[in-house]
Amino acid sequence: DAKTTQPNSMESNEEEPVHLPCNHSTISGTDYIHWYRQLPSQGPEYVIHGLTSNVNNRMASLAIAEDRKSSTLILHRATLRDAAVYYCILLRYNFNKFYFGSGTKLNVKP
Amino acid sequence: DTGVSQDPRHKITKRGQNVTFRCDPISEHNRLYWYRQTLGQGPEFLTYFQNEAQLEKSRLLSDRFSAERPKGSFSTLEIQRTEQGDSAMYLCASSTGRSYEQYFGPGTRLTVT
Fold first, then answer.
1. Is the Cβ–Cβ distance between A43 and A53 less than 8 Å?
2. CB contact under 8 A, B105 and A43
3. Which of A35, B6, B13, B26 has a Cα-to-Cα distance from B99 of 20 to 30 A?
């Protein structure tokens, strides 16, 4: 199973952008890059996913390197509610099980 | 949208007892997943159902664990002869066949004393 590497923790100020990096050097051509986040005392929730092109949705943006060996989740204006553990996950096409790593714990300072 | 629900939310049991957890997925979702999460770690995949068929089981799922999804609706996860190492959060998720997005429930926290 393809592995992802993320920093253990990051800190951000409220209202500022946050860039959460993820390395996935063993990614294969059919692996989708997914991001989930887990707020305290809750189950994980979907944030965004992509294959090759950069993606935007109402929650975040996903920037994927040209060689696909790394990606960055971008929160454009962090709020206190964005304090969570963010997981970068590779999902092979037609496979269904996610392998979560330890994720990045994001702390947002007021 | 009622979301994925799990019952109970918390369970304290003595070592050696059997426990059963229930998961009710989002009604139109045909795929259902169980994960286990220990403190400070990400969720670990346990098993996956498509409708009533259990299609995949992790090596983490020992013989003491069994999961069912009768009629392809709700699912149960049973742990027999619980051990202290079974203490964890047990998460359920569901999805449709058209999207890889999984919707997670709030989890059942198991404490084995």
1. no
2. yes
3. B6
pLDDT band at B59 (very low <50, low <70, confident <90, very high): confident
Q: Is A21 on the interface with B (CB under 8 A)?
A: no
DSSP secondary structure of B23-73: EE--TT--EEEEEEE-TTS--EEEEEEETTEEEEE-TT--TTEEEE-GGGS
Interface test with chain A among B7, B9, B39, B101, by most A beta carbons within 10 Å: B101
B-chain residues near A32 (CB < 8 A): 100
Q: Write out chain B residues lying below 8 Å of A87, CB-based.
A: 42
Give the C-alpha distances (Å, rounded to integers) separating B14 from B6, B61, B86. 21, 20, 11
B85 phi, psi to nearest 5 deg: -70, -10
Residues of A in contact with B41 (CB under 8 A): 102
Q: Give me the percent of chain A exceeding a pLDDT of 90.
A: 75
Q: Is B84 helix (H, G, I), strand (E, B) or coil?
A: helix
Q: Compute the average pLDDT of residues B53-59.
A: 89
**Inter-residue contact B4 to B27 (CB < 8 Å):** no
Q: Output Rg (C-alpha) for chain B, integer angstroms.
A: 13
A18, A59, A62, A99 from A52: Cα distances, Å: 21, 19, 10, 20
pLDDT at B1 over 60: no
Better pLDDT: B24 or B97: B24
Checking if the pLDDT of B51 tops 70, the result is: yes
User: Tokens 């992509």 identify what position?
Assistant: A50
